[in-house]
């Protein structure tokens, strides 16, 4: 069942190394993008947790680049009121789902996915098991696996590894910013190309 225990997951799941997270294959994500689940899914958001220099050198079409706790908190939790307990009507509504990933969906994607769920639980502790975001998935194999199978759905059509030679300083800056992000939305904002360019100048 999804996080608020109201109904099963709408997307088919696959086994992954993170037992607490629900994984989907790249093919399932393509099916979602192509509208196969439109009868059940109102909206979906692909959350790319890689660093800006990786994202700008190739990402899944329409994915948003949120790579710190502050950014995730600001976009998905800031200003939300406590979620009321689920009703039968809620169970019949179309879903608003999230799909997290990073390069391999090994560390950064899982960590920010867990962070969101923990914040969501804390925000709705008086109405457990209600959640703002009850249906959250992890893309198995991350961007690397998706790109290898469906590069035509990536923009630009390329893949830059996190540890790419020549980007050592980018990696250092991004890791430092990630460590300074406490997840309270103090400085988190959704990343745009202009803000990522400014980051490169820090």
UniProtKB/TrEMBL annotation:
Keywords: Cell cycle, Cell division, Hydrolase, Mitosis, Protein phosphatase. One of its GO terms (biological process) is endomembrane system organization. SMART domains: RHOD. It catalyses: O-phospho-L-tyrosyl-[protein] + H2O = L-tyrosyl-[protein] + phosphate. The keyword Nucleus does not apply. Pfam families: Rhodanese (PF00581). Tyrosine protein phosphatase which functions as a dosage-dependent inducer of mitotic progression. Belongs to the MPI phosphatase family. Residues 164-202 are annotated as: Disordered. GO terms for molecular function: protein tyrosine phosphatase activity. Its EC number is 3.1.3.48. Residues 40-155 form the Rhodanese domain. This is M-phase inducer phosphatase. It comes from the Eukaryota. One of its GO terms (cellular component) is cytoplasm.
């Amino acid at each position: 069942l999804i996080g608020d225990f109201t109904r099963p997951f709408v997307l088919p799941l696959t086994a992954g190394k993170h037992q607490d997270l629900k994984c989907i294959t790249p093919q399932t994500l393509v099916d979602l993008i192509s509208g196969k689940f439109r009868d059940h899914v109102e909206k979906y958001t692909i959350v790319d947790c890689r660093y800006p220099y990786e994202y700008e050198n190739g990402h899944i079409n329409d994915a948003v680049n949120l790579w710190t706790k502050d950014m995730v908190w600001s976009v998905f939790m800031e200003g939300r009121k406590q979620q009321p307990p689920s009703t039968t009507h809620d169970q019949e509504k179309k879903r608003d789902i999230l799909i997290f990933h990073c390069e391999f969906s090994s560390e950064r994607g899982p960590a920010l996915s867990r962070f969101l769920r923990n914040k969501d639980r804390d925000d709705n502790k008086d109405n457990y098991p209600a959640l703002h975001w009850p249906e959250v998935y992890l893309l198995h194999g991350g961007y690397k696996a998706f790109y290898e199978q469906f590069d035509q759905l990536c923009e630009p059509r390329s893949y830059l590894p996190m540890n790419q030679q020549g980007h050592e300083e980018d990696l250092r800056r991004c890791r430092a910013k990630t460590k300074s992000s406490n997840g309270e939305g103090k400085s988190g904002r959704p990343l745009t190309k202009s803000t990522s360019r400014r980051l490169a100048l820090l």
